[in-house]
Amino acid sequence: MKVIICGGGQVGWQIARQLSSERNDVTVVDYNPDLVRRATDTLDVQGIVGFASYPDVLEKAGARDADLIIAATHSDEVNMVTCQVAHSVFSVPRKIARLRAQSYLDAIYSDLYRRDHLPIDVVISPEREVAEAALQRLAAPSTFDTESFMLGKAQLLGMALDEDCPVLNTPLRQLNELFPTLRVIVVGVRREERLFAPEPGDQLFAGDQIYVFCHSEDVNRALEIFGKKTKKQERIVIIGGGNVGLGVARALEMRTDRVRAKIIEKARPVAERAADSLERTIVLHGDGMDMDMLTEAAIDRADALLAVTDDDKTNLLVAVRAKQAGCHMSIALVNDPTLAPLMGPLDIDAYINPRATTVSSILRHIRHGRVRQIYSIGDAEAEVIEAQILSTSPMAGRQIKEIEFPEGVLVGAVMKGDKVLKPTGDLRLEAGDYVGLFAMASDVREVERLLQVSIDFF
Fold it and tell me: What is the pTM for the complete model shown?
């Protein structure tokens, strides 16, 4: 597949890395020569320096025979014009645009993106993706990562194991014997900075970070078994009243369970806009770094703090200060992935990487059709893939134990009809079933072969 990626920033670079590693023909376009050079020096991609919306630049990038264009520059308007030029001049069949301004995303204006108006096939909103990720973190306390699958009936949970975890030093195969009705599979383990797919005889140790695939009804029980608290989040303090903080507060207001939320916003115009947009949420104008302001927000009685300003260092420091003041849980928005190792030493419970959430969303839409969802883990070290089994797939009609999965691939769950089942060796996969797979990055191509999805879907 020939792909043009417009924008060589963090998201564009990550998508380019992902697609080029899968042997796609990738070209990166950016007006900044340093970003283009970084992409061509570190990845197997071509680079074009220029403005992505210019027809001559897209011509040089090979738009006449491109299969897909991803517009992920920092400008919404450039992304929109790029898709229009790609459609009108070069007839590029599939176009994805990243848009930030909420006005462009309002449902009442959705006709704007019809093919005879502004032909964008998929619109990605980083702020909405991040807000959804924040809500999922809040819904699963004591986890550092979480994502829903199988129409919300299955959950991927990332947990750091402590010394008091009840199942330490227990071979994974014995977990099935100890908890036969628990619909949970440990699909990934990070130990000493190395992520791997565990084998049945592997044990879990204190300090491990694990990823488990879990039936949504068993989430609380799974958390307890791995030594995690399941306290309900009733009081939440949000630092930052921009699009992300506002989106989270709106979603919390729509929930039927009682949640008390407060927002602290430094910029008065942003605070006033948030106050006008919300009904039950208290909006405080002030600096979230100010201890007096945190005290006014009753941070010592808060169940969770969510720091989602546009500054990584502010988010980290506020999260640390909140924990020291007595807040039970802190979540920080962190754009720089190199800061992730600091989360443990700083006692920050979870972090949200906007780049990873946006990349996962774009990959999900690229691999449409038979692949329903993709979630990128870590620094693109592994993927969790939810896909439908085709009748032509080598997996169709075979028991799981009969399928030759690579070492780095594990089945986390199987959905037959509307039921999510725990995978066992004797479970037979049929055409039409959905399967949730954990795959190390090096094994993704083999997963594609097993799914036998044609290149048109990628």
Answer: 0.73
